[in-house]
Specification:
Layout lengths: L3 E2 L1 H10 L7 E4 L7 E2 L3 E2 L9 E2 L3 E4 L9 E9 L14 E4 L11 E4 L3 E4 L3 E4 L9 E2 L10 E3 L7 H9 L4 E5 L3 E7 L3 E2 L10 E2 L2 H11 L3 E8 L3 H14 L2 E5 L9 H9 L1 E7 L1 E2 L3 E7 L2 E6 L3 H19 L9 E6 L3 E2 L6 E10 L5 E5 L8 H4 L4 E5 L4 E2 L3 E7 L8
Parallel strand pairs: 1-20, 7-8, 15-18, 15-19, 16-17, 19-23, 21-26, 24-27
Antiparallel strand pairs: 2-14, 3-14, 4-13, 5-12, 6-8, 6-9, 7-11, 10-11, 20-22, 22-23, 24-30, 25-29, 26-27, 26-28, 28-30
Length: 408
């Protein structure tokens, strides 16, 4: 990809090179967050028997036609229990929510509409129709129902449904195992004083959290020293046991960096200059078939590259159909200034909904690719096209980041 690459072309190229992982069968309790590879079809009905929706008294509806009425209480059924007593005409059975309906009963009167009379009788103060407060067998799910199609992300509620229909295992696209590493003898992690030229390592820790937030299983390879043989060994090992590799730094044009030197020799890499700011430099390729995402070293550029290129590709690998984050059109309260330079500017902004029902944004102010602290509290990225920027009150497309709090 010589020259400057439009963002859309880079996204299409990277995403197209990251096909979904092969499906695996897992216990249903381990499927949360994964995407179903096959339809889930019910083999059991839910509920499995007629049961009561309320605490009260199981009756024959005809016996309540002229309230108030007093009926003898001939038995009691708790949830998880059952009775073999068949309800006769003019009788009632005390029953708790979820308990099976006794034979002969066709309705339940809520306990709030009754009053106990002595130890063995109940007064019923309202009439009910047949079927009142009764949940029929199969009312929620019937055998053969197609509950969840392939491509559905498994939520905690879906896990509950799988348990209710006794789906002990399901076929899913697995979470991607992603190796993340940083390189550089200048990086310090031990908390000690900085020597001249040293900086504290932050990108790897940041990317580790972003990968987990995206649903990946992360293998943290730590900081690899500036040694080509050592880095090649780490990369080849990661390619053999992981589904993807993410690194940051050493991807700018003209840079000499051990990452660029090693990847240029052992992997099939594409070194791109993308028509965006920040995050113009980006590298992508494969090592022994394993995708490698080379993000810029400046922390804000690393965030933007991850959000715009790596994250959508990883989501495709994990079977998701929606690859991009939610986007909308917002109002720029203070305007978003810029100058023409042939690039789309991806500006970090604070977004919130106002009383007018519209999303409003204001700049995070410091927009430098190295200014991570100023970016940390932003919750959206504004996509500002090439030109003179946007005036106050103008409209702009924004991409909402994970955990965006948009309340006024």
């Amino acid at each position: 990809m010589p020259g400057v690459t439009p963002l859309e072309d880079a996204q299409s190229f990277v995403i197209g090179a990251c096909p979904p992982l092969a499906p695996v069968t897992v216990p249903f309790v381990d499927a949360e967050g994964c995407v179903l590879a096959d339809d889930v079809v019910a083999a059991e009905e839910v509920p499995p028997f007629d049961n009561t929706a309320v605490d009260g008294y199981a009756v024959r509806a005809a016996d309540t036609a002229n309230p108030p009425v007093e009926l003898p209480v001939v038995d009691e059924v708790a949830a998880g229990a059952a009775t073999d007593r068949r309800l006769g005409a003019g009788e009632a059975i005390r029953i708790m929510t979820g308990a099976p309906m006794p034979a002969g009963a066709d309705a339940v009167v809520m306990v709030e509409e009754t009053e106990r009379v002595g130890d063995d009788r109940v007064r019923i103060d309202t009439s009910v129709e047949a079927g009142a407060a009764v949940r029929r067998a199969g009312d929620d799910v019937r055998p053969g129902d197609r509950l969840f199609p392939a491509g559905t992300e498994v939520t905690p509620v879906i896990v509950g449904v799988l348990a209710s229909i006794n789906a002990r295992t399901v076929s899913v696209v697995p979470r991607a195992r992603v190796a993340v590493l940083s390189t550089g003898d200048e990086l310090v992690e031990d908390g000690g004083p900085l020597a001249p030229g040293q900086i504290r390592e932050s990108n790897r820790k940041m990317l580790t959290g972003m990968l987990r937030e995206s649903g990946c299983d992360v293998i943290d390879l730590g900081n690899v020293r500036d040694d080509e043989a050592a880095l090649e060994e780490v990369l080849r090992d990661a390619a053999g046991r992981c589904d993807a590799i993410v690194s940051s730094g050493g991807v700018s044009m003209g840079d000499y960096d051990v990452v660029k030197a090693v990847l240029g020799r052992v992997a099939d890499m594409h070194w791109m200059q993308i028509a965006i700011k920040p995050a113009k430099p980006f590298a992508f390729g494969t090592l022994d078939g394993t995708p490698i995402f080379g993000l810029p070293g400046n922390p804000v550029s690393s965030i933007v590259s991850f959000e715009m290129l790596a994250r959508p590709a990883l989501r495709r690998m994990m079977g998701h159909r929606r690859l991009a984050r939610q986007s909308l059109v917002a109002i720029t309260d203070d305007g978003l200034g810029r100058r023409p330079d042939g690039k789309v500017h991806l500006m970090r902004v604070l977004a919130e909904f106002h009383d007018d029902g519209r999303c409003h944004v204001r700049s995070a102010r410091a927009q430098g690719s190295h200014q991570l602290a100023a970016t940390a509290l932003s919750n959206a990225i504004a996509v500002v096209p090439d030109g003179e920027g946007l005036p106050p009150g103008g409209e702009v497309a924004v991409v909402l980041l994970q955990g965006a709090a948009l309340g006024a």
